Amino acid sequence: MGAAPYSLRSMAAGAAVPVVGAAVALAVSARLFRPYGALISSLWQGSAARWPPSPARAVVLTGCDRGLGFSLATHCHSLGLTVFAGVLDAASPGARRLVDLGVRVVPLDVTDGRSVQGAVQVVQQALKDDARLSLSALVNNAGVLVFGEFGWQTPRQVSLQLDVNLAGTMRVTRAFLPLLRAGTSAGPGPGRGRVVVVTSHCALAALPALSVYAATKAGLQAWADALRMEQAQYGVPVVQVVPGSFTHLSGILAAHAEHAREMEAAMTEEDRQFYGDYPRRFHEYLAVVSSLGREASERPCRLPDDKLHEMFEAALLSLRPAARYVHEPWRYTLYHSLMRLAPTGVRDWLAIRFASLPSFKDKRP
């Protein structure tokens, strides 16, 4: 006679003691290593010494129409850096506002090779026109997120996320590498360029309904790890940045209603019978965040998080940058620590609770 099915609830209960023990161990370790905090922080976060911000240092950023990209473009501009802000739509509210602020806006569709080469030519010409100017950093920020179970998403939605988040980042980086290398042959100097890759907490621990997005960010993380080792021999640092949670301010869910309609239209009759009202409840649950995303896209602003901008400054300007900078509230730190230590059943339970999304089990015909 086979063993009875082991439910997620019973697995979570059975693993409660080791998880609590792990949490206690983390607290004790933190207390023991507190005297060495400064040393550990310096090793983990990289060198505190930085290049001084200067108009002679150029930064190229992708995805600046809204959200994090817009905020970083305005912040780098305020530091005195020369900013080339890549935008998908040069007529978008964010692009127009950047122009008003004096930022150089460059049309840049990361999925289009000709558009990428056009952006490279703009920057290349600027470097030729001003001998003092050097490309100090490429910040790969452009990203697309489609919220919904993998079984709901259309092939177009899956391809869009893969092409923007993963292939697009590779495409842009490959095109700008010669300009980033240009100042490295004579050793450290103001012309040394670096690649900054914006990943996600989903790369550290995937969440339900974000399977495709998480896959693209995990792929970015693996690619950036390998790229860091490859480019080190040429003097080009590769830095990963994991920003905190600000979905409602980023505008990344601005198109969620359109994506929801596309998923609904693509469902078969069998899908509709099986899922019942679950997809509708799921998308209605996200309606408020989607509305805030549209508002953030229409009126982009600087994100109200000074620590986030300070972390990006370190990634951009540190003489010896860390391999990865992570910006997160304490609850994220605890969550990811438990996810590394807990068994699979408990990790799944934690992720589901963390996401706090509607569930299929509550479906109604």
TrEMBL record:
The keyword Membrane does not apply. PROSITE patterns: ADH_SHORT. GO terms for molecular function: oxidoreductase activity. Keywords: Oxidoreductase. Pfam families: adh_short (PF00106). The keyword Signal does not apply. GO terms for biological process: steroid metabolic process. InterPro entries: NAD(P)-bd_dom_sf (IPR036291), Sc_DH/Rdtase_CS (IPR020904), SDR_fam (IPR002347). Belongs to the short-chain dehydrogenases/reductases (SDR) family. This is D-beta-hydroxybutyrate dehydrogenase, mitochondrial.
